[in-house]
Amino acid sequence: MKIKLSIFFLFLFLSATVLSQPKKLVLGADRLIPEYIDALKFQKIGLVTNKTGVLSNGNLLYEELLKKGLDVKLIFTPEHGFNINSEAGKIIKDSKSPNREINLYSLYGENKKPRKEYLKDITVLIYDIQDVGARFYTYISTLYYVLQAAAENNITVFILDRPNPITGEKVDGPVITDSLRSFVGIVPVPIQYGMTDCELAWMMSKEGWLGKNLEARTIFVTMKYWDRKSFYNDYNLKWLPPSPNMPDVETAEIYPGTCLLEGTNISEGRGTVRPFLTIGAPFIDPEDLIDKLEHYELKGIKLLPLQFTPKKIPGISENPKYEGELCNGLSLKITDRNNFKPVEFGIKLISALRELYPDNFKFTDYFDKLSGDASIRENILNGVSPKKIIESWAIEINEFKNIRNKYLLY
After folding, report:
1. Residue 339 lies in a domain
2. Could you say which of 199, 300, 342, 343 is the most buried, measured as most Cβ atoms within 10 Å of its Cβ?
């Protein structure tokens, strides 16, 4: 009897353990062939992807489609190229796929939108790129132009969903103003918008952002078992850097804040092994900067003094700020990512730098495009407190969330 009871309780324990374990995340790419192959069999396919376009097992999507005998006519590639080995801002030229079978057409060169002549023989587009969840990361601009071109040419677009690596829940930062729209801010969303590609594509199309009377015909291949509150590395997925200076998830977590430094004369860490987690300039006193920032009641981040010398890194950072010069600054370490607010940290950091070094610190014209609102720069220059600057976008964030709620799929 005791043996039977022991077996019974062991069975209950094992059952409870299995039930308590999270189910394995299923990507949109994992679902495409098993569930949609019949719909793709007689289509002429154009892919929009790069080397992040993989199944959970690591196999490249385009190779899997070819193995199944599907007719992949061409591949469109975003910034950084198919192999993700070109630094930010570098023009990408047309080329061939690694197996030399398929033409790769760049959407980060002469054209940022698929050209009509390239689409004339395409009946279906498939979009599959890992994003990082920040408005100024240009892959969502590529998504926008793909949807627009598809709508103009009556082509169906399959969007294969992937996790927002910095959660699908956090929303923060100013909503971009119309006058500042650019390829680093193409639609009216906050810096951190808390949506997946499927959700954002749905919003772009239904809200009329693609243009007058334009609405893309889309098929959303969603994920299974994704939790909005989760970060990318909460799952058993290998991180494939979506750009040369995005080496890990922690970099993506801080990027919506420290990327704002690209619009200043402060190094954002390009030319080091920890871009966006390393910041500095020759004129900074690290201890003074730490003291100043600690008065802003930072949460979820550790600041350490650091000296570093930015260096040219081929394919990653060809011309970093202060190349070859000794910089003084900070090494940043996220200690509580659930409570850390990267956009707020970025505003506090830049405010502190401006207050401590008014004669040395400079904004560039690029800052307004990144922040999306010229008043952010103006308020910092006028000595407005970070708290008030952060409060200034509260109303528009709530308005955005009300729109966003209509398009959440998870």
Report:
1. yes
2. 342
> pTM of this prediction?
0.93
In a domain, 291, yes or no: yes
Q: d(Cα 68, Cα 33) in Å, to the nearest integer?
A: 8
Question: Cα(364)–Cα(260) distance, rounded to whole angstroms?
Answer: 11
The residue range of the domain holding 157 is: 28-240
How crowded is residue 231: how many other Cβ atoms within 10 Å of its Cβ? Answer: 18
197-206 and 394-404 are packed helices; what angle lies between their axes, rounded to 10 degrees?
A: 90
Contact 283, 289 (CB under 8 A): no
Return the structure tokens found at 94: 């047309």
Strand 103-106 relative to strand 95-96: parallel, antiparallel, unpaired?
antiparallel
The candidate with the shortest Cα–Cα distance to 81, out of 102, 104, 63, 101, is 104
DSSP 298: -
For residues 107 and 78, is the Cβ–Cβ distance under 8 A?
Answer: yes
E strands, 97-231, where? 103-106, 124-128, 156-160, 217-221
pLDDT digits (tens, 9 = 90+) for 282-340: 999 999 999 999 999 899 999 999 999 999 999 999 999 999 999 999 999 999 999 99
Q: Are residues 164 and 213 in the same domain?
A: yes
Number of domains into which the chain is organized: 2
* CA proximity to 219, closest of 205, 231, 233, 207: 205
Q: At 13, is the pLDDT very low, low, confident or very high (cuts 50, 70, 90)?
A: very low
Residues 335, 258 share a domain: yes
Buried b (16+ CB within 10 A) or exposed e, 25-50: bbbbbbbbbeebeeebeebbbbbbbb
